Amino acid sequence: MNIVLLGPPGSGKGTQGQLLAQTFGLVQLSTGDLFRQILQDPSHPLYDSLQVIKEGKLVSDEIVNAVVEDALIKLKDAKGVIFDGFPRTVAQAEALDRMLNSMGKKVEVVLDFDVTKDVLLHRLLGRRVCSSCKRVFHIKQGYTECPECQGQLTIREDDNEEVIIKRFGEYNQKSAGVKEYYLNADCAYIRLFVDDPDISAEEVNKWIIQELSKRGLVQ
Description:
Blueprint: E1 3-6, H1 13-24, E2 27-30, H2 31-39, H3 61-74, E3 81-84, H4 90-101, E4 109-115, H5 117-125, E5 127-130, E6 136-138, E7 153-154, H6 161-183, E8 188-194, H7 201-214
Parallel strand pairs: 1-3, 1-4, 2-3, 4-8
Antiparallel strand pairs: 5-6, 5-7
Helix pairs in contact: 3-4, 5-6
């Protein structure tokens, strides 16, 4: 099962992607993680092209598609892939279809995380990421280090109010076409509206699995 996760940064895609990957034995492919890996390597051929991320801007379709295609080739034997943060434009969605079709595969499910701006600000301004295992926590949980591996909890460079609001507006402007694309595609389209900043990841995950079950996609 190949799943596309739609939603602005901080909407919960990453957390739900991890949970779904663990539950169904899928591989989570996060463009954000792929970009951050490249940005840590100044010698990488795409390092300069990704500097726009630090300004709160979106990466061009050409660059994103190249990064994703390279990752997909390495995951050709995976049971299924969860696409986290990709596609964000119609051109990217069309490119993903071509990539998967060439492998005899397709997108089966689209989960659209429709989260309000207030929820995003609450989540992202309080987000802390383990520098070791990359697990994500919130400051309200009270951890000073990762409870799983004791790694240091850090604040991502782009987790500031100015960048968050800019990316939220840019995402909404560019994502409308992608949502319409998948609403008309041969896949299950599931919208999750979230306006409660305190809803737990477990509650959201339970709801997602219930929706997948209703459509006969999981047992």
